[in-house]
């Protein structure tokens, strides 16, 4: 986790860094800090959000053309001023910002303690900067060389940027396992965990690869690897609108992102789908396309909301392609020695493309000969780069920590992939294939209609905002949606919620039901409609309060339940794209009414780059 930003050039560094840290706060927000060179190397850091750091800086003289900044999600040491980054070496010569974990820091610390070093924080990062400084002093070498030697002795993950008191034009940055982007401006350079702090100044970027070290010295950039071999930088022009990462009049990023879904789902189909011509093109799946079509089984690895998208995808692929699918939590998959055969196909689904467990699951599957298809939202992210092929979800930057538009984009892309395989294999009738394409094209309009229930949902939220528990129940395609609805509520409103297949209720959860218990049923008119009507009756018989998401025009369920939310009808397989919308809105409004920090819920971070 953690967000890092650094700048060197002809502009004032502090405002660029502070603004960049605010853009990266989604990555962590328990403390923030900045280091500047202004008549000496200064470090300012503070527990809390970037706004607390800004208050600390008020009135300080901050003029500096170079600086590094950090927003933290604690791994080593509790969130406090001392453990906040940047960290300074004991000599005072160097400061560092770090995203990642140095796993052998305890051994390195012992060595440094023996040499007389003392430490003020509990962090692995303070150990790293002293280790670098120690090498630099003893070998009288350049900072770049000291960083290189230090990193060769380090086990773990890192994206770091280091600055030195004795060189006002020098920044040394490196990555392994944590993302780092270099922005190339006109005589100036930017470093950040993703491109969002950079695009206001330049759209020319270099995504550093693992084991690369970038040194900017007096306006010149050189990239080498940790074996000291010089690399030719690959400068890419990125296409990201500033507007896409600002709130655009909404009170929270999450609400903006919920409302963006008609557009983001459309963006993810653009250029890929043309229902009138029966055309479905996925440009990122070419060389391995046949392997995918003829796969004997498919594995899907992911975490959290992306795992829920994987579950829905399992239903798509098994229904249309008749290929067996297994969906695994990446964190379990990576440690349980799963059976993978040469040529097995693995889909890794990840909004950020940086989730450590998903990356590790990919590496272990790849080592056993699997073909990896990455499904990421963040362009240039680590998962997209380690996958053999894949597809971007093109939902645009998702800033709210709770995933919303990335989920619907993941479903859209996986649906297109499933249809494409089925069409090639001949496991779907031509007429059904065309009907599905047409219905998929209609989905943005249906999501727009589903958003119209917002005011009604606010009333339901007001009624249940103090509930201590919620149950979410669905069947078939709507079962993963129940899981997703429960996760959304838990993570942003801190209300305990469980998602279950509705029929499983009788095997345990039914014991929880009393007149205090809100139960959300996703009960649209599909193949399990009659069954779910019975499940609703079972809850009502025990006096539970039922909130039902139903198909427009349903007259049966509304007569039985306490609250009804209508969504437009669509194909059963596409229902999750529509039914998840009211659940996102319900969790959002409850969280706002409980005064929770919707975009930055406690203890969470947007991309989980540690295991
Ligand atoms: C929930 C949420 C998390 C992520 C999970 C995986 O709203 O955001 O559960 O879905 O951490 O993240 P990615 O998709 O970036 O791999």
Tell me what portion of residues adopts beta-strand conformation: 15-25%
- Which consecutive residue ranges, at least 5 long each, have pLDDT under 50? none
CATH architecture of the largest domain: 4-Layer Sandwich
Give the radius of gyration: 25 Å
The number of distinct helices, counting runs of at least 4 residues, comes to 18
CATH class of the largest domain: Alpha Beta
Q: Tell me, briefly, the overall form.
A: globular
Q: Can you list the strand order of the major beta sheet?
A: 3-2-4-1-10-9-11-15
Q: Overall mean pLDDT score?
A: 93
Distance between the termini: 10 Å
Total domains: 3
And the CATH topology of the largest domain? Glutamine Phosphoribosylpyrophosphate, subunit 1, domain 1
CATH evolutionary superfamily of the largest domain: Aminohydrolase, N-terminal nucleophile (Ntn) domain
What is the number of beta strands?
A: 27
Bound molecules: fructose -6-phosphate
Largest sheet, if any? 8 strands, antiparallel
Structural category: alpha/beta
